[in-house]
Design a protein that fits this description.
The complex is a heterodimer of chains A (313) and B (544). Chain A is an alpha+beta fold and 313 residues long. Chain A folds into 2 domains: 183 residues, Cupredoxins -  blue copper proteins (Immunoglobulin-like, Sandwich), CATH 2.60.40.420; 97 residues, Cytochrome c-like domain (Cytochrome Bc1 Complex, Chain D, domain 2, Orthogonal Bundle), CATH 1.10.760.10. Helix content of chain A is 36%, strand content 20%. Chain A contains 7 helices and 12 strands. In chain A, the strands form 3 sheets. A 5-stranded mixed β-sheet of chain A has the order 3-2-1-5-8, covered by helices on one side. Chain A has a 5-stranded mixed β-sheet with strand order 4-10-9-6-7, covered by helices on one side. The longest helix of chain A is centred in the N-terminal third of the chain and has 33 residues. Chain B is mostly helical and 544 residues long. Chain B has a single domain, classed as Up-down Bundle (Cytochrome C Oxidase, Chain A), CATH 1.20.210. The chains are: A alpha+beta (313), B mainly alpha (544). Chains A and B meet through α1, α2, β7 and β9 of A and α3, α6, α9, α10 and α11 of B.
């Protein structure tokens, strides 16, 4: 990242960044056009029709329907174009496109970012990513609302306590970039910053292999440690339902209706087990609220997600 | 311009200012004009305080390191700046001073419909303000003026409840003022003053009052819920107590976005009056300017979600909010185009109020077009919560509303006080404010796009050049505001006396009463026989 004394555009390092910059330039031209137009008209009229004497006879015009319609509709139609393009680009920040999309798990707390890679490495206020590969971020806060903001990617998303939020991005340029917290979160808000390192794919593979246990392995350990495995037997004969293949499946509920067992449902069922009890089971599971960290929850969920592939056949 | 006549015996004639000299005659008055002056003094104090906090912010941000004050202090300083400027300056500014003073005069009434409720509004405002001041001197509050949960309800260690109480109480002042205006405008118009003849200033205040009445209760109850959660751990917003933190944002912005229009609509009303008078012309597109005020008031209630595009709100809900936000830009643009068209072939005076009005048109336009940028969801991904947003709303609030307030104050100053201000000093201040304002806030658009987040006490080195420009501009802006504070104060006590009921040759009932007006406003109840802004008819008469 070259240090420019008076930069005008931030680094551009994601597939979405040039699209956002392009839209920005289009709207900038539109804005400059209308601002200059108004300035020019006001200054021109002020000069040309400047009061010369108290006996000036202004020409009285009460209005013009044609003009009113023109200056309502023409700018509105122009900005509708911005609406359409802007909405399409926005949706791209939430659409998983590639089959090899990798995942990163972010936990925000006052005042640091904790990043977990599924393969194992964990980082604080630093994030390493491979270039040209789509990444899906799953994020949650432990305390207050934060916002994960990487200006070079032109992306941010609030990180909220009690629920997962996510976005996807594909980095395009190797380099070191700013990572900011964009939602005011207390005393050291402006210290909740870090760096994003975008690396060549091969460098990243080497880097990520240097980590320790994978998230799944950690999750499995927690699964035993918290005693989950004593009830959630793989054969389905325990006091709780079998969790094999449960991820992303539809579960029938005791109260009628059904729910998709996604990350949010799994998290809720660990912290507040009585909220949505699966049909055929008693609400006997104790809550784990306050006993397991958000990072630990992400690991247990990673383990539950893995149960499909490894033992499901 | 007609001559200001020096009449030493003018003071002996009883007007609203000379009708009683005791403290009680001011503090227990029911006269809308005296209450307006009470408000004017109080909001000036709060503006100066809020400005002092702004100066502290700008000084801190001159260097990338947080070296002037602790992070915690900085957070309290920007919070106090926001709380004071929004709840105790911008929201009451034009309605409570100029609106209070002028609406009864403009509609030909003796007073507002409920003079005692009007006085109550001022007391509620003062109680809220004292709570705010108490917080400022007793340790401060660090939540930002937005009070986002669960930070405010659970994590902050500062005087959150006292501050929220202050905003809550001041909210009732705003509701009661709105109620008073609506009833007055409906029921107390002079014979012949049809809705189609109402000055645009009155239309703008009518639209504002609707928002005050319908929106403010929502933020009041939201703040109560937040205080209950903080004080009694009753879960509404904190997920640890089973609440939803984003729900707070929905409730908060349901009021606080329309509140932006509470702040700007009265300013637009001021501009309509100034542009017509100083162009000596009837307004271009009366129905469209009046109608656009109502359109803004209504549409303004359906755009709150644009504060939450990246806050975990459904993307489809975001789409709808984005579209309606684009739509609300149209009535705002219509107003600007109509004002510009009003100047066409006019006889344009370059006096201070008109300079402020021209500044308003330019700066409000920039505030508006950058609002369109932020309404574009994809751009908001990047620019949300950066200095781009800071620059945008200061263009609307300071470049728009404060310019309009200053313009209006100069325009009606002689009517309100019976004194004149030095014209040349006024022009210099308008010029300084315009230059200083742009130098302060334009660089913030650039540094915002570069990624500088809001509410940062320290920042990366490459942003410094823009912050230095901004701080320099703030110095110029400060002088621009100090100048009127000095000459208005001077004028109030020693300015040249004005007794001409209509020193600026303006149309409107407020210019038919003596300067300064008598307590009962109209000695003979007025009857309106001519159309609004009948500047053409004025010429006919002057020819006779």
């Amino acid at each position: 990242m070259q240090h420019n004394t008076m930069p005008f555009f931030p680094d551009s390092a994601s597939t979405i960044a040039p699209e956002i910059d392009g839209l920005m330039i289009a709207e900038l031209l539109f804005s400059v056009f209308f601002s200059v137009l108004i300035f020019a008209i006001v200054v021109y009229f002020a000069l040309k029709y400047k009061r010369k004497s108290e006996d000036d006879r202004p020409v009285h015009i009460h209005g013009s329907l044609v003009l009113e319609i023109a200056w309502s509709l023409i700018p509105f139609i122009m900005i509708l174009g911005f609406f359409v393009v802007g909405t399409r680009v926005f949706f791209r920040a939430y659409t998983v496109e590639a089959a090899n999309t990798m995942e990163i798990f972010v936990t925000g707390k006052q005042w640091m970012w904790k990043i977990q890679h599924p393969e194992g490495p964990r980082e604080i206020n630093e994030m390493h990513l491979p270039v040209n590969r789509q990444v899906k971020f799953t994020m949650i806060a432990e305390d207050v609302i934060h916002s994960y903001f990487i200006p070079a990617f032109r992306l941010k998303k609030d990180v909220i306590p009690g629920r997962y939020t996510s976005f996807v991005v594909t980095p395009t340029k190797v380099g070191k970039y700013h990572l900011f917290c964009a939602e005011y979160c207390g005393t050291q808000h402006s210290g909740m910053v870090g760096s994003v390192y975008v690396m060549e794919e091969s460098d990243y593979e080497k880097w990520v292999a240097g980590g320790d246990e994978s998230m799944t392995a950690r999750g499995e350990a927690l699964f035993g440690q918290y005693g989950c495995s004593t009830c959630h037997l793989p054969n389905g004969k325990g006091r709780g339902p079998s969790l094999i293949g449960v991820y992303n499946s539809m579960q029938k509920l005791q109260t009628g209706g059904s729910v998709k067992a996604d990350e949010s449902y799994l998290r809720e069922s660990i912290l507040n087990p009585r909220a949505k009890v699966v049909e055929g089971f008693q609400a006997v599971m104790p809550t784990f609220q306050g006993q397991i960290s958000e990072e630990g929850l992400l690991q247990v969920i990673a383990y539950i997600k893995s149960l499909e592939k490894e033992e499901g056949q | 311009m007609s001559a200001y006549v020096e009449t030493p015996d003018a003071a002996s004639k009883v007007n609203y200012l000379t009708n009683g000299w005791t403290w009680q005659s001011w503090l227990l008055t029911g006269d809308h004009k005296r209450i307006a002056m009470l408000y004017l003094i109080s909001i000036t104090v709060f503006f100066a305080l809020g400005g002092a906090f702004a100066a502290a912010i700008r000084l801190e941000l001159m260097t990338p390191r947080g070296d002037l004050m602790e992070a915690e202090t900085y957070n309290k300083v920007f919070t106090m700046h926001g709380v004071i400027m929004i709840f105790f300056f911008l929201i009451p500014s034009v309605p409570a001073t100029l609106g209070n003073f002028l609406i009864p005069l403009m509609v030909g009434a003796k007073d507002l419909a409920f003079p005692k409720i009007n006085l109550l509004s001022w007391y509620l405002y003062i109680i809220g303000g004292i709570l705010g001041l108490y917080v400022a001197v007793s340790g401060g509050v660090d939540t930002g003026w937005t009070f986002y949960t669960p930070y405010s309800s659970t994590y902050s260690n500062s005087a959150v409840i006292a501050t929220a109480m202050g905003a809550f109480v001041a909210g009732f002042s705003s509701i009661l003022t709105g109620l008073n205006f609506i009833v007055t405008i409906h029921k107390m118009r002079a014979p012949g003053l049809t809705w189609g003849r109402l000055p645009l200033f009155v239309w703008a205040h009518y639209a504002t009052s609707l928002i005050q009445l319908l929106g403010t209760p929502v933020v009041a109850i939201t703040l109560v819920l937040m205080m209950l959660e903080r004080g009694f751990r009753i879960g509404f917003f904190d997920p640890a107590l089973g609440g939803d933190p984003v729900l707070f944002q929905h409730l908060f912005w349901f009021y606080s976005h329309p509140a932006v229009y509470i702040m700007i609509l009265p300013g637009m009303g001021v501009i309509s009056e100034i542009v017509t008078c100083y162009s000596k012309k009837s307004v271009f597109g009366y129905e469209f300017i009046a109608g656009s005020s109502l359109a803004i008031a209504i549409l303004g209630f359906f755009v709150w979600g644009h504060h939450m595009f990246v806050a975990g709100q459904s993307t489809y809900a975001g789409m709808v909010f984005s579209l309606i936000t684009f739509a609300v830009a149209v009535p705002s643009a219509v107003k600007v185009f109509n004002w510009a068209a009003t100047m066409y072939k006019g006889s344009i005076s370059w006096d201070t109020p008109m300079l402020y009005a021209m500044g308003f048109m330019g700066l409000f336009t920039i505030g508006g077009v950058t609002g369109v940028m932020l309404a574009t969801m994809a751009l908001d991904l990047h620019m949300h919560d950066t200095y781009f947003v800071v620059a945008h709303f200061h263009y609307v609030m300071v470049g728009g509303m404060v310019m309009a307030f200053m313009g209006g104050l100069h325009f009606w100053w002689s009517k309100m006080t019976g004194r004149s201000y030095p014209e040349m000093a006024g022009r210099v201040s308008a010029f300084l404010v315009f230059i200083g304002f742009n130098l302060t806030f334009f660089p913030q658009f650039i540094v915002g796009y570069l990624g500088m987040p809001r509410r940062y006490h320290a920042y990366p080195d490459e942003f410094q050049v823009y912050h230095v420009m901004s701080t320099a501009g703030a110095g110029v802006l400060g002088i621009g505001y100090l100048l009127p504070a000095i000459y208005f104060t001077y004028s109030l006590f020693a300015g040249k006396r004005v007794t001409d009921p209509n020193p600026v040759n303006a149309k409107g009932l407020e210019w038919t009463v003596p300067t300064p007006p008598p307590t009962e406003n109209f000695i003979v109840p007025p009857v309106v026989t001519e159309e609004v802004y009948a500047y053409a008819e004025q010429e006919e008469k002057s020819l006779v």
